Amino acid sequence: MLVAVVASIALLVTEHQNSQLGSVRTALSILVDPLKYLVSLPTSVLEQLSDSVMTYQALKTENDRLREEQLVHQTRMLKFAALEKENIRLRALLENSFKLGEQVLVAELLSVNMVPYEHIVVVNKGTRFGVHPQQPVLDANGVVGQVFRALPFTSEIMLITDPNHAIPVQVNRNGLLTIAVGSGQLNRLILPFLPSNADIRPGDLLITSGLGGTFPQGYPVAVVDEFTAQPNKAFATITATPKASLDRNRELMIVWSKSVPVPLIVKPENEEGTTDAVK
Amino acid sequence: MPLNNTIGFFRILLTLVLAMCLRIAPLSGDLALLSPDWVLLVLIYWALYLPERVGIVHAWIFGLLTDVLLGRMLGQYALAYSLIIYICLKFHKRLRAFPMLQQGLFIFFCLLLSQLLLFFIKNLQHPAQLQASFWLPVFTGTLSWPFVYGVLSFVSLFRRIK
After folding, report:
1. Which of residues 157-216 of A touch B (CB under 8 A)?
2. pTM for this one?
């Protein structure tokens, strides 16, 4: 009895002081992770079934829609490539550096329920795929969160709406920098650090500012919903809705953004080479 | 009988693994707040009715596995489970003779103690806000005790585990 208590307290203390227990957790997680897959099996089987019994008509409509979307996106990408090159050239003029493009890995959500009050989800890619803690996670619409803990077969992702999560953001319209803190509700972020006279309006898009180094710059995070200036308080009450559909989608993208920033004070002779690298 | 022994052991293991699966079963929205601590309930049952098979060491190991499963700090469930199983083992003879209602009361206090310990550890880690719904699993756990009792006594009677 005493041994068990002492052992658990020792574990707690060591983990609290420094997380040297990663290897223990990794070893134990190999035992436990199959359970997570087992529990989420019914959901994924149901989903596959519903995919396989779709009617021809539904598939056709979906296919058409996707093709149309693809066309639109491709056209936009054409323009994007030109803009990117122009941006690089302009930055080179400013003697600034430009970050390389990111690499992404698509991970699927496992439908398991970890703990209430914390917005942590589990995905099916882990350290075997090179996932490491503090990697940003996105979906098609915006930032979802960051990798909280990477285990061999799964990894835990903390959503941006977790009460313990904060993300440095910037208002897209005017570059105003602030921090968005999770509220504990899946559809709301709070911006607690802006004064009542800040230049921010409902409908403003918040993007990642790239400060702090965890999230790459320029991804959409949320849209400001409500701005209430409180005359008797120093800070305004501002809430925002995340762009990413946090409660709905099953595919998430884990991003590698640790690429080395390349100084782009390009000399005319090697300009070709550098732009190729950026692609 | 060694063969019977191993079968019995695997049956206990299986119920515990099932309890762990139930623990992380996906529930929508507010239902997730109600989900009781199945692993602890199953451990308590085995500690009360087969105290020679399930001891503090088992409780500690399954607590540690639950920690990893739920991504908690290593050791907090291990601590809570081993303490509660210790209490159960201490009083198992008296508790077995209790009627359901009194047993339920005991289970209620066990679950409350475990939840208190977890809250205490969480609070040491970083000051946490206490929501009233934090205590809901204690009540739902107590209410689901008859269910756990029924299922597990069926399991143990099905082919006598000794």
Report:
1. 164
2. 0.78
